[in-house]
Design goal:
It is built from 1 helix and 4 strands. It has one domain. The protein is mostly beta strands.
Length: 78
C-alpha cells in the first residue's frame, strides 16, 4: 500500500500507520510530487517505510529519461 502525506513534513511511524489504515493504492504517480513530498508505504510483510522525495527531474521528451532520488526510512514489522 502507498499513500502520499499531505500534512507538515516529518511523518513518523505512528502517522504512517494511521495514514495507511484503509489505504488501497498499490501504485502512485510521481507527476504531482515535488521535492520534499512524503509517502508512507506498507509491504505485505508488514514493514512500513517513509519515502521522502529529494530530487525529481521530469522527462522533457521521449528520448530523455526522468529520474527521482529519495531518502527512505524503514520500520520492520514486529
Amino acid at each position: 500500500m502507498i499513500t502520499m502525506m499531505y500534512a507538515d513534513p516529518g511523518a513518523t511511524l505512528a502517522t504512517c500507520r494511521i495514514a495507511l489504515t484503509g489505504a488501497e493504492n498499490r501504485s502512485f504517480t510521481l507527476a504531482g510530487a515535488a521535492a520534499g513530498s512524503e509517502f508512507c508505504v506498507k509491504h505485505p510483510s508488514g514493514d512500513i517505510a517513509l519515502l521522502v522525495v529529494q530530487v525529481k527531474s521530469t522527462a522533457l521528451g521521449d528520448s530523455e529519461a526522468g529520474f527521482v532520488t529519495a531518502d527512505m526510512t524503514v520500520w520492520p514489522a514486529g
